[in-house]
Amino acid sequence: MGCEPEKTQLAFAFKWTGLRGRRLSSWANQERSIYSQSSAYQDEVLAFVNLPLETPRSALAQYVNQAVSPLFTIFNGYQLSIDVIEDLTRRLIERRL
To answer: What global pTM score does this model have?
Structure first.
């Protein structure tokens, strides 16, 4: 794209809909348990993340966390640990998810 990595930000927007009443589950990795029995209390979630273009792959998990935290929050304040997010992000990048 001809951008200068050290001066370029990538802007991402995420929108989830049809959430009210749904429950969390780990469909991508059945071996990973999610301990939340609460249903989503709202129907829609928006999240925005600005990612510096020069971000190394090893640092992507913090931005993934920024994207998914608002989503998990509507399930009675559920929080996925950063360690789990780092593991899942790494596995996705390595195509081992």
So the answer is: 0.86
